[in-house]
Amino acid sequence: MNSVVTKAPHEHDDSTTKLGFWIYLMTDCVLFATLFATYAVLRGNTYGGPGGSELFDMPFVLAETLILLTSSFTSGLAMLAVHQKNVRQIVVWLAATFALGAAFLGLELSEFAKLAGEGHSWQASAFLSAFFTLVGTHGLHITAGLVWLSVMLWQLRRKGLTAHTSRQLGLFSMFWHFLDVVWIFIFTIVYLMGVA
Amino acid sequence: MTLQASLKNYTIGFVLSVILTLLAYGAVVNHWSTGWVLIALIISLAIVQLVIQLVFFLHLGNETKPRWNLLTFLFMMMVLLIIVIGSLWIMNNLNYNMMMSPEEMDTYMMQQSNKGF
Predict the structure, then answer these.
(1) Do the Cβ atoms of A178 and B45 come within 8 Å?
(2) Which fold has domain A62-195?
(3) CA–CA distances in Å: residue B25 to residues A56, A60, A109, A192, B18
């Protein structure tokens, strides 16, 4: 009898899945790099309208930044609970991550609505087109993350903590940490350098 | 790594990130410096925070060989720097050679659009 157990082709171990997802994140970085480059080139082209220093509300942006940073931390705490196989704690930290992420998205959308309502929409100048594209693409990623998070919370209720759900949770926390890393540079290059 | 050590790592990463964010914010809002010095300061703070989050949140440091995550990250950084620095370099040269600052270009384009083009 041959005692060697072979894996079915679709069963790779977690480290391969994680590396694959990491490579996706790296290509997403290149996408953001092109948008950052576009913004950096066009930031002076305000078409006679106001620039960043007149438009940005800095205490508001600082609040957004700290909220997203805290949600990155709570998603890390959820991962620690995954390692402990403590489903109750996983749900608590994921719910906190969701609430903070949704608060961030709400603040961002209200900033966008305020700018557009005052006549500073993406159509007003090249600077504003580049601004809305860069910050909006990040917001779109946050939205996708929130959808993913709610699907996982539902799966945790339905299936419990299986090999599949814990792998998904690992990938999600990578995605969420990555979005906070991108936000460091939006905060610095768009907002801080915009008013400096 | 034990659970206690992981929790400690996340907490250190979080506290350091908050401090760096507040430092960068304070430097700009309270005008601790101006011009290129201020820009260099806040970009350095952002890069330090990038490294901290990569190490403490994304665990890029404690990978075993072969370090594929680190290698793909470094390759991505190379592509990123070529795109960003290359674009800025070319577009600044273009503005320079057309003898127009972005503001002058704006004025010129508004004149053209007033003419009805």
Answers:
(1) no
(2) Four Helix Bundle (Hemerythrin (Met), subunit A) (1.20.120)
(3) 13, 12, 22, 7, 11
